[in-house]
Structure formats: C-alpha cells, structure tokens
Amino acid sequence: MTKKNFEGADQESLDLLKKMEERGIESSYDRYDAQQPQCGYGKIGLCCRHCQMGPCNVDPFGRGPKRGVCGADANTIAARHFVRYVAAGTAAHSDHGRSVAELLIATARGEAKGYRITDVNKLHEVAKVFDVSTEGRKTNEIAEEVGEMALAEFGKAYGTQKFANKAPEARIKLWEKLNITPRAIDREVTESMHRTGMGTDQDYKNLIMQACRTSMADGWGGAMIATELQDILFGTPKPTRGTANLNVIKEDEVNILVHGHEPQMSEMVAVAASDPELIKEAEAVGAKGISIAGICCTANEMLLRHGIPLAGHMKMQEMAIATGAVEVIAVDIQCVMQGDEEVARAFHTKLITTSPKAKIDGTEHIEINDENAYEKGKEVVRIAIQNFPKRDKTKVFIPKGKKSDVVVGFTHETIKYMLGGKFRASYRPLNDNIMNGRIRGVVGVVGCTSSILWPDQLPYMELVNDLIANDILVVQTGCAAAECAREGMMVPEHMEVAGPGLREVCEAVGMPPVLHAGSCVDNSRILIACSEMVKEGGLGNDISELPVAGVCLDWMHEKALAIGQYFVTSGVYTLFGTKSMVAGAPDVDKFLSEGLEELVGGKWSFTPDLKEMGTLIKDHIEKKRDALGINEKKERKLYDMEDRRALAVD
Ligand code: SF4
Ligand code: MSK
After folding, report:
1. How far is the centre of ligand 2, averaged over its atoms, from the C-alpha of 303 (Å)?
2. What EC number(s) does its UniProt record assign (predicted)?
3. Which residue is closest in CA terms to ligand 2's atom 7?
4. Is 530 annotated as a binding residue?
5. In this structure, which residue's CA is closest to atom 2 in ligand 1?
C-alpha cells in the first residue's frame, strides 16, 4: 500500500498530492491502493486470457492446476505473456514512427502547413540508409522518397529493416545466423499476436526468440524511424538550457500543458503560442503571456529541441493539473491517464484530446492532423486564452520548491561533436577515456515512472548518483530522464558528485555527467551510439563486448519491455527494477537471465533492490573491461597536451 507521508523528497509533488487529498480529488495513488491486493498470478506471468476457455491460472507452488484448460504449461503461458507485452510496446513506438513518416511525406509535398524540413544533413544521412539518391535533387524530393521508404518498412513483403544495417558487422551476422533480423514491422507484431494465441507456439524458447525479433522491429525499426525522421522535421537536438519541475507553471500567464509522445501536435501549439496576435489576446484577458510546459515524453521532445520547460514525468500529470493554474492540457497518444479528466473537472482546466487514435470519454476532441495542425494549434491556444478568466484564484496552488536548471540535448551526434570537436567529430575520445579508465563504462538509465512508488522514492536519482560516483557515464531518456532533470542532476555542476575520472572528462568538455538524450523512441539513439563506439575501435567487435548496460527502474508500460528486449537482443545487459514478470515460470526466467546471453550476448536481470542492482551493473562493467584487456594496471599518466587536445571542445 502507498505510504501517505507528505514530507520528503520531491516535496512539490507531495504538496500537490496533499492538496488533492484535502479537496477530495482522487489520484493514481488512491486508485493503486484501491486495486490491492492485485492478482498474484498476473504479477508473475501465470494468468492466461487468450481464449474463452479461460482465464486460466497455473499454481506456482504445485498445489493447484499445473496447466490451463488447453494444456498450456507455466512456461508457455509466461512466455506468451512476455511476447505480447513486447509486441504491444513495439506497436506503440512504431505507430508513432509511422505518423512521423506520413508527416514527412505531407511536408515534402507542401501539404502540411507550418511544418518544414529543418535538418537537411540528417535527411541526407537517412537517405543513405534507404538508398535514396541525393545527387542534384531538391530537398523536398529527397524527403518525399525517404518518407515513402520509411513507410515501406512497416509492410514490405520481403527483406529486413534497413536501419538494422547500422549495427556493427558482427551483430548483423549474429542476427542473421539466429534468423532474428527484423522483417516488416507490422509483420513482426502480427506474427507475435498469432503465435501467442491459443494453440500455436508452445515452446517458450521459440516464443522468446520471436520477442527478440519483434523488439528489434521497434528499436532498429519503428522507434528509430520516429527519432530520425523527427530530427529531419524538427531538428536534431543540440545542447540546450531549460528548466524543470511543477513550478514552471506560471501564476500570471495562460498555461498550456502538452502531454503525450508525438511532437507533431506540441510543436504547432508551441508555434501558435508565440503568435503576436494570440499573445495580445492573452494580454487582453489579463494574462502576462502564454506559457507552454510539457509532461512525459512530449516534455522531453520540447525541452530538447526548444528549451520549453518540463513540468513533470508520467506520474506527475494529475498533480500538474491540480495546480489549478492550467487552462488547457492538450494530449495526443500514450501514457495519458484517463484520471486526468476527473482532475481537470475539479478545476476550470480543459482536457483536449487531439489524436483520432486516442479519445477520452467526456473530453473535448480537436482533431489535429498533418494538414490542419497549425490552424488547430491556434484553436487550442485560443481556447486556453478564453479559459483564463475562468481560473479560480482561490484554488491555485503552485508549489514554491525548487525549479531545476538543466542542460539537455545529448544525442549520439552531440556526444560525438562535444568529445571530438566540430571538425573531427568522433567517438575516439570517449573510447580512449573508457580504455584508460577515466570512464569505466556507460549506462543508459531510461524508461518510466509509475504510481507504484510514492513520490519521495527517487530510485533513478539514487542509482544514477551511485553510477556517476563510480566514474560511469549515464545517458538518459524518457521519464527516468525527467526525474533526474527535476532533481537538478543535468547541469555541468553536478560533476561534483562524479568520481575523479568522469569529473575530469566533464570538466574538460563542460558537460554534465548525466546526459539527456530524449524521449522513449530516442532509445534508438543509444543503439546507434553503441554501434559507433564499436566501429570506432578499441572496445571489441560487437555491442556485447562494450562495458555498457541498460536500466529501467520504475517501469510500467509495455513500451519499456520492448525497449529492454531490444537492448538485450542488441547485446546489452539490461536490468529492470521490479521482480521478474515471468517469475512464475522459472525456466523462462532462467532463459531470459542466462540462456539468452549465450545466444545474443545480452541478458536480463530483474531486481527491486537498488544496491544489488548497482553492484550487478558495476560488476558487469568490470567483467567486460577485463575481457577487453583494458583493466590491466597502467601507470596513471598525467594529462599531456595530446590528451587535452582530444578532449577539447571547439
Ligand atoms: Fe486457458 Fe489455454 Fe485458453 Fe489460455 S489459451 S485461456 S491457457 S485454455
Ligand atoms: S512517457 S512509456 S512513462 S518513459 Fe515515454 Fe514515460 Fe514510460 Fe510513458
């Protein structure tokens, strides 16, 4: 059960939860409590609802049924459960990617008013991946063909995902040998659904191998398409300053929260909010201006590209509305709680859904598509302005606490430029610093926040500080990144917490020891960064040889499992901060945590114990360093000019 202490870390969230309780407004924490005790079978993967002879449960202690009505055993039921999670996560990221491909085509054809091709270099890079010729062609022509090629990745009859060719050669060969190179994205999701239905695939290892292939249709397919094409349209993020926490919501301005995942809607709302005519209208109703702030991964997208403030991560969405100072919360897809509607109703706030794929009963729906986004974005802003005078000032409560500064925007391109310099962008200095031990390794700390943990529990902060103190560079995305951003960990000054080696590198380059790389789909950036590290040389021939790991602590969404699975299948040791979701089937559990490593070089660990997790990560990194032969004691050489040049920023 949730412990309802209202004093502690993340006091801003706690203050708002207290206010919500005083006002009788239900939060996700109340609903989590109301759900207790949750189904024990479901928690460990032993509940099957895949046909009407069920639901079937298998008793993990052997006292009850050992099989479902159809004869499916614990391994089959748990593995099918796992595969369906991965397929759903892949579908979510990939459908997002498909929308971006469609938008790129519409933009290239001049059918999407307000959008433009922002990063032409990126367009040319992606054109190479899709074998689209660029010679003597206009940008729009190239963009249209790149968009068409990206769209074809979803349903092509033959061949495999083009972006998978960005992996190191050894990895590509391994995937081919295991027959897990992802084919068409829709095909992998469809096949997963098929194989997990009643009476089809009933071999847990065979099922998990399909989870491998499906997840890669996400990481090296749909999610990578989303990220790369968003960069073409909206710009590849560069180091940018911003602020983060609930109190970015402004007392004297029209406040609009943008929430969800696809930047299409939020970009246009942001553009509309800077329209001088609308600013005048806002002033006419007594506001000092129009303020946009983000929630969830939309917040990450907007913060990284434009420095637009981040109000909070997933589990803070209801609290942000409960400030009573939000005129409109405009949402698109994924991680939007239906509970927002009830909280908004307790205030003057209008919750507006904008995607035809994601409506909420009882809310206003303004459909935003590629053609009308700019006009509809203005409509959303205008609704917020007209709603401002209805704000009940007696209900407004914006917590005073900290507003953290952040420096964000560390894509794999930025890391290359920052470390290598503009004219010789390269991963060489990063690899060298890993080889000489100043940096022991790199860990991606990514993924969700959930209402299972009360706000004063800050697992990401604790783990990340432990890692950087041990000279491990941390790269973050998603809500995990938002938690550390709010906690003020994404500024160069946070290098104070880092170990001496990492601090030395951060000082030389002027970068934070915790790098914000973007939203959930941007985990694909981490795959590319790992591949580039391998290709740079000195750290083995495959991603599985690198001293790296991937972590998600407070995971809740199916997307997080898909991400974890594609990290594992790409050769990365991946740790999740809960008990195993297939704990009821020890064979499946063992296959995920041991068997897979023999096949794909990556493996899973599940543990809610943060200390244990820290130890597992550090031991793994040292083991990889030993295997690479870079742990042999070398005399610590003082920084010479050559080293300094290698680290210099232009
Ligand atoms: Fe039960 Fe088998 Fe149907 Fe699942 S597929 S609900 S185990 S009968
Ligand atoms: S929003 S999927 S809670 S990271 Fe991408 Fe955050 Fe997880 Fe949703």
Report:
1. 15
2. 1.2.7.4
3. 448
4. no
5. 70
What pTM does this model have? 0.96
223-234 and 296-306 helices, crossing angle to 10°:
40
Residue 201 CA, ligand 1 centroid: distance in Å? 13
pLDDT-derived band at 639, boundaries 50, 70, 90:
low
Q: What is the pLDDT of residue 650?
A: 38
Report the alpha-carbon distance of residue 417 to residue 401 in Å, rounded.
35
Note the pLDDT tens digit of each residue in 355-392. 999 999 999 999 999 999 999 999 999 999 999 999 99
Nearest to 302 by CA among 358, 257, 352, 363: 257
Chain center to CA of 453: 19
What is the reported pLDDT for 645? 57
Domain 74-234 has CATH 3.30.950.10: no
Ligand with smallest separation from the Cα of 553: 2
In CATH, the number for domain 410-628 is 3.40.50.2030
Find the 54 Cα to ligand 1 centroid distance in Å.
5
CA distances from 276 to 95, 234, 283 (A): 35, 22, 10
Tokens 């109340």 -> residue:
30
Q: Determine the residue of 46, 49, 69, 200 to mutate for testing ligand 1's pocket, defined as the one with the most ligand atoms within 8 A of the Cβ atom.
A: 69
Domain edges within the chain: 11-57, 74-234, 246-395, 410-628
Domains 74-234 and 410-628 belong to one CATH topology: no
State which CATH number among 3.40.50.2000, 3.40.190.10, 1.10.620.20, 3.40.50.2030 fits the domain covering 246-395: 3.40.50.2030
In the predicted model, what is the mean pLDDT of residues 508-527?
96
Tens of pLDDT, residues 276-327: 999 999 999 999 999 999 999 999 999 999 999 999 999 999 999 999 999 9
